């Protein structure tokens, strides 16, 4: 029998993102190989464990977030995969969230709610935060809107209440209502605390969305925090697959493997329509609740006392697209959810999302997403399908 490989996992267990990555590694091992794990108890950015210097293992998966860990991993000479955006060892392959897609999802989620004013609250210490800021601002600018960026003037290790107070000062100066993307859920929770301190109503005056969908943290926030859902388990799964190849002697180039997020978990912090026109707000709500029922414009006009011409003109002026495009968009988002979260066949998905024919769904989906439904499912499901 071949020797069981020994793999060090230098990944913290203190947050939902890292735990999801670890679950993905475990899933890969169950399906493909049997490894012995070395998982030290460590926090994000901690120095490497002392035993690593003399360890005689076979491979490493690490969140390389400081120079000490980078030096230790490099000195080991072992096959290694990086699951950090810090990119401190460019010679290694790395697996990370696709920050462009994360920012795009957050921007679409907030734009869909009719906001005209936007902000980004990040943490400049981290590459992923800076990338999310860049892509979020770009998406907002492409929609013809402006985005304000919070830039801290105090030390990141300053007391939490000082950071929250500075965020509150920034929020108070922004035009209202305003929609804020926080770089991750912890920052999102701080933004909600700042809103409470400044007596700003959430979500009516300030809507907030985070990233990571740390369900415990999001549900404990006041009010509960909406969040972009990264595909953390796929991240860990892909990292383990790459390491397996490297430990088998195959050459793996030091390129980025970016994992698409799964969607948005909507909670109370963004559960609002910032549309002043009550007829258009009512129409949007009706479309989002009934799009899967094969509704058309005539069905929408039954809930708003406007002529078709006036309604369509006003709708496009406020939301930037037609009511028909909104119906298709809502249906397509539901199709994407069902493709990634279920094993339902395409005929059943078409039936559940208001498409009369599978062929029409497939054609419309490819036009919108750039991939066929099956290609989209393969690329975005939690784990590769065997």
From TrEMBL:
**Sorted UniProt keywords:** DNA-binding, Transcription, Transcription regulation
Listed Pfam families: HTH_18, PBP1_XylR, Peripla_BP_3
**What is the recorded name of this protein?**
Transcriptional regulator, AraC family
Is Transcription regulation tagged as a keyword? yes
Query: Domain of life, per the record?
Result: Bacteria
Instruction: Identify a single GO molecular function assigned to this protein.
Output: DNA-binding transcription factor activity
Q: Does the keyword Acetylation apply?
A: no
Query: Which InterPro entries would you find in this protein's record?
Result: Homeodomain-like_sf, HTH_AraC, HTH_AraC-typ_CS, LacI/GalR-like_sensor, Peripla_BP_I, XylR_PBP1
Pinpoint the HTH araC/xylS-type domain residues.
281-379
Query: Which SMART domains does the UniProt entry name for this protein?
Result: HTH_ARAC
């Amino acid at each position: 029998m071949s020797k069981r490989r020994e793999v060090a996992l230098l990944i913290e267990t203190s947050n939902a993102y890292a735990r999801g990555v670890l679950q993905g590694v475990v899933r890969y091992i169950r399906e493909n190989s049997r490894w012995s794990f070395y998982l030290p108890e460590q926090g994000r950015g901690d120095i490497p464990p002392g035993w690593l210097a003399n360890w005689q293992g076979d491979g490493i998966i690490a969140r390389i977030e400081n120079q000490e860990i980078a030096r230790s991993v490099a000195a080991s000479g072992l096959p290694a995969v990086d699951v950090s955006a810090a990119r401190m060892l460019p010679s290694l392959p790395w697996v990370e969230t696709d920050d462009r897609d994360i920012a795009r999802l957050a921007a679409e989620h907030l734009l869909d709610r009719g906001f005209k004013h936007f902000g980004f609250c990040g943490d400049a210490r981290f590459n992923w935060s800076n990338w999310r800021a860049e892509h979020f601002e770009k998406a907002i600018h492409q929609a013809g809107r402006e985005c304000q960026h919070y830039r801290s003037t105090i030390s990141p290790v300053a007391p939490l209440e000082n950071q929250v107070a500075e965020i509150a000062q920034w929020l108070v100066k922004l035009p209202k209502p305003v929609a804020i993307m926080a770089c991750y859920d912890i920052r999102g929770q701080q933004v909600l605390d700042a809103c409470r301190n400044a007596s700003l109503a959430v979500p009516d005056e300030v809507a907030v969305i985070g990233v990571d969908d740390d369900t415990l943290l999001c549900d404990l926030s006041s009010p509960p925090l909406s969040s972009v859902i990264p595909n953390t388990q796929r991240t860990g799964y892909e990292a383990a697959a790459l390491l397996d190849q490297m430990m088998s002697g195959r050459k793996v180039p030091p390129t980025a493997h970016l994992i698409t997020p799964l969607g948005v978990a909507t909670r109370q912090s963004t559960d609002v329509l910032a549309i002043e026109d009550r007829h258009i707000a009512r129409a949007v709500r009706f479309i989002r609740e009934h799009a899967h029922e094969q509704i058309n414009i005539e069905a929408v006009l039954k809930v708003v006392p406007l002529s078709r011409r006036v309604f369509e003109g006003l709708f496009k002026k406020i939301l930037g697209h037609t009511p028909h495009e909104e119906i298709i968009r809502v249906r397509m988002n539901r199709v994407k959810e069902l493709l990634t979260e279920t094993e339902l066949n395409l005929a059943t998905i078409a039936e559940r999302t208001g498409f009369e024919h599978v062929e029409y769904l497939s054609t419309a989906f490819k036009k919108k997403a750039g991939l066929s439904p099956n290609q989209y499912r393969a690329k975005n499901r939690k784990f590769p399908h065997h």
